[in-house]
Write a structure and sequence with these properties.
alpha/beta, Rossmann fold, six-stranded parallel β-sheet, 14 helices, binds cytidine-5'-triphosphate
């Protein structure tokens, strides 16, 4: 899997570029949510994946194979028996697919999968496919909670199928409850993760991202130009590689879709970020955030009027988060250094002062400036004396390469 490169800030679909060139088969079964599968196929196709759809006969009552063929530019498949080459078709399709995703998955299809029933193209394909299998159930909440469905889901999870939990809300039957097809971003990102290298599986990472905001009055604040994108990309890249991730982010980042092993904690101020990080358990902390170093010395209630006599802004120093967090030598602490000159020496000084294992120095200004940019360029300074460089490239690719460096620091 190579690091993706589509620059588009604040968009959790961006890392799907890592699906570029991958071969995915989407199995669509017969529920109302079948129409959403078309958008999923389009999302993957836009990311550069080759997508083939297999529809059950009941799915084809809701949506046609032609819809998928038009969106993906690939053949879509329906009835096994109508094609003379059937004997080899499900096997050929299964050989072609790197991953198979059933979305939406009906109770009936899950039951067939759980028990190895294979009486149409979709079910024979699922039995024969070798790569990762994922299933996103969508159905009425009573059907979902029925002991038979729950037992089938447990069986499938035991067979290694990734079950993508449905969400709650208004269902097609008019009732409200659990059973809505999971967010398409969730399904798409879990598919990408299933094909990721998993070289950080079992690792627990905390990542900070973005600026903080320090309120002056009820509507004004001090902040900086950080977008949070470097931290977001580090968090997602680590998650795609199998890590459990906790992302503590200042204002500006859109909340991520619901993802297993991924926790998002929005904060506002530097003090809030320190409090959130202090409560976390982690093996490695990557401080990619740009917390505000200063705050207005006193917060004014209401709105400061133009004719107010107090138009000077007294500042107070904020806590330094990395300096304030107690050190645990079992853990790794990775900092960034944002400076406009003498990057490597500044990084070395921050490494020593803040007792870090690795500092990634990025420029603040000029044509190489990292703040608000799509790309970044890092100089790495390690506690063990090593130095290296990640040349200028899109931030997701930088995140991927920085994680390669972090990986070398974990004890074997
Ligand atoms: N950092 C922090 N708490 C702060 C400010 C910064 O933990 N209040 C972290 C940043 O997340 C980064 C590292 O410290 O990982 C270095 O931040 P940087 O802004 O480069 O430097 P500062 O330590 O703030 O020092 P200066 O502004 O003097 O360069």
């Amino acid at each position: 899997m190579s690091a993706p490169s589509n620059p588009d800030s604040n968009n959790w679909r961006e890392p799907l570029d890592c699906l570029c060139g991958r071969r995915l088969t989407l199995v669509v079964t017969g529920g109302v949510a079948a129409y959403k599968a078309a958008e999923l196929a389009r999302m993957w196709t836009r990311a550069g994946a080759e997508v083939r759809a297999v529809l059950t006969e009941n799915a084809a009552r809701f949506i046609t194979p032609l819809t998928f063929e038009s969106l993906t530019g690939q053949p879509a498949f329906l009835d096994a028996w109508s094609r003379p080459q059937f004997e080899i078709e499900h096997i050929a399709l299964a050989d072609w697919a790197e991953a198979a995703v059933v979305a939406p998955a009906t109770a009936n299809f899950l039951a067939k999968m759980a028990h190895g029933l294979a009486d149409d193209l979709a079910s024979t394909f699922m039995l024969a496919v070798r790569g990762p299998k994922l299933a996103a159930p969508a159905m009425n909440s009573r059907m979902l909670s029925a002991p038979a469905t729950q037992s089938n889901l447990t069986t499938l999870a035991g067979h290694g199928v990734t079950i993508i939990n449905p969400g709650s809300g208004r269902l097609a039957c008019g009732q409200s409850g659990e059973g809505r097809l999971a967010d398409l971003e969730t399904i798409a990102l879990l598919t990408a993760r299933s094909l990721g290298p998993q070289d950080l599986a079992g690792r627990c990472l905390a990542v900070s991202a973005g600026p903080t905001r320090e309120p002056w009055d009820d509507i004004r604040f001090l902040s900086n130009r950080s977008t949070g994108r470097m931290g977001r990309d580090l968090a997602l890249a680590a998650w795609l590689r199998g890590a459990t991730v906790q992302l503590v982010a200042g204002p500006g980042l859109a909340p991520p879709p619901t993802l297993p092993d991924f926790e998002f904690r929005p904060v506002e101020t530097t003090a809030g970020m320190l409090e959130a990080l202090s409560a976390l358990d982690f093996e490695a902390l990557i401080m990619a955030a740009a917390p505000a170093d200063f705050r207005p010395a006193g917060r004014v209630a209401g709105k400061i009027k133009k004719d107010s006599p107090a138009l000077t802004l007294p500042l107070a120093l904020n806590p330094d988060i990395l300096l304030s967090l107690p050190r645990d030598r079992q853990r790794l602490y990775i900092g960034f250094a944002a400076d406009d000159h003498d990057l490597v020496n500044q990084a070395q000084a921050k490494l020593k002062l803040k007792k870090l294992d690795l500092v990634a120095a990025n420029p603040t200004g000029g044509p190489e400036g990292a703040f608000g940019a799509d790309e970044n360029h890092l100089r790495l300074v390690f506690r063990d004396g090593r130095r290296s460089e990640i040349t200028r490239r899109p931030k997701f690719a930088v995140a991927w390469a920085l994680l390669d460096a972090v990986k070398t620091l974990f004890p074997a």
